[in-house]
Amino acid sequence: xxxxxxxxxxxxxxxxxxxxxxxxxxxxxxxxxxxxxxxxxxxxxxxxxxxxxxxxxxxxxxxxxxxxxxxxxxxxxxxxxxxxxxxxxxxxxxxxxxxxxxxxxxxxxxxxxxxxxxxxxxxxxxxx
Length: 128
What we know:
Number of helices: 5
Radius of gyration: 17 Å
Oligomer: single chain
CATH class of the largest domain: Mainly Alpha
């Protein structure tokens, strides 16, 4: 079984880790490696369960474990998102970048326009 968007593969063979643990480990690995960027919205519990052929409780258990580990954060009805990782300044920068991305999206800027605005602001700040 695979999830197209997340590229999750659940091995149902005997002796394989429990499905929730496979799901938890694969999402955690992708988040920590950057393959799932900060702010990436994960599918709903029901949606991912259906896609992978798992029980909703299995996916919910994996999401709860990921949240307890600080890998994801649930924002109420808005969904579950990959959380900012790292320590200190890098985590704070990731949170600020996510807020910027959300703001420019609401303003209707394209990705190129948002990148140009950010680059201009950095150049002005660092005098380059």
